[in-house]
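Practice record 12: protein with succinic acid.
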Amino acid sequence: MSLSRLKSPRLFRQQCYVDGRWIDAGTGKTLDVHNPANGELVGQVPVLEADEIDTAVNAAATAFRHWRSRTAQERADRLMDWHDLMLVHREDLATLMTLEQGKPMGESRGEIDYAASFIRWFAEEARRMYGETIPGARIGQHIVVTRQPVGVCAAITPWNFPAAMITRKVGAALAAGCTMVVKPASATPFSALALAVLAEEAGIPHGVFNVVTGSADTISETLTGNPAVRKLSFTGSTDVGRRLMAQCAEHIQKISLELGGNAPFIVFDDADIGRAVEGAMVCKFRNTGQTCVCANRFLVQSAVHDNFVAALAEAMGKLRVGDGFEEGVTQSALINGDAVEKVVEHFEDALAKGAKRVCGPAPDTDRGNYVQPVLLTDINTDMKLCHEETFGPLAAIMRFDTEEEAIALANATPYGLAAYFYSRDIHRVWRVADALEAGIIGINEGLISNPMAPFGGIKESGLGREGSRHGLNEYTELKYLCMGAQ
Ligand code: SIN
């Protein structure tokens, strides 16, 4: 499978998109992008220097003056054209994604639909950027609150969802009237650049959407060091998020952070075990375990523990590991060798501390970036996998006895992105949903991602929400007009 399969080869760009122009780095420097499935070179993208990134910010600042003054309907129309083009080119976009990220083609197609759904959602929301009126403090006085776009925004996006993590930021930003400079992950820039080709074809004006590539440090320092950038949205690790937050302090830039998770997945003894296993499979093995909302710890009540383990092991036996372009593959190569090492480290640490392997071979680093799914039981809180995201196809199960114990275990983490639980007792459902410390709770549901709901975490999992009407608000400032009596 190669680039020659693209029906529209123009979607594969190896240049940055700045102010409506396709540019190389002035220095000529490039970085290589490899296919994680076989290590082959996919292509190269420019390594821009700080002054070239500032050019993108300046272009976005100029474009902002015009873009913000268009009607919401005009902005929505451009976004809808972009959405439609994404679906027209779904197969090519999915091919590029599997080439650079590895995920199975079925999942890449699903991600293009997911990515386009954010553009559509925010195109629809653009016309609902409502303000409010408030009774005045004095007779004849009126208070009016409007929402205004924050200005030039920057986005730094991850490799695990190379298209959707861009569109859920840029869709909201552009709908609100902001302009944006995006830095895609160095491992997966081609999906972002293909989106830029389609943005241009959709008539999104020059400078409104820009894509820059290169050194993560240079780009993040330049974007946060430029006072024209009024907001940064980042999806990635908590450690990097913490650093970016400190950098944004200098110019008091607004910030949205979607950071690491450590999701518990609780199965109570009154759960429908068949449904719980279905939810566990999608939740744990989507994107080969590489999502920040993947279940990281399964907590299963004693009475149903053995049944759940047996049913999960059976379902896992049907997973097929291989190149994302092969028919029937459900689990792809992980993104790189470091990702494989992390799974191996968690597996070995857990085994040394008393875990039992139920199915799957021991993960090792000799199989390239491939890891066979593995199921462990008898997990305890001394193990690394209870405290760090594994980000791979390792399912780890801990037994518990009481509801209080499950809640305490689930909340024993500085992270609070997603949590899941299965129960058919309505009283328990409300109690546990209230008690879990996470921004997203899946109740008898393993797939919680969609454009209409507010996605985001609490504690060290982040700040702000993406998707939903709240996602639009993240790109607006409130302005209060105090109208005196005549
Ligand atoms: C993520 O892993 O960062 C996002 C996952 C999702 O949108 O479901």
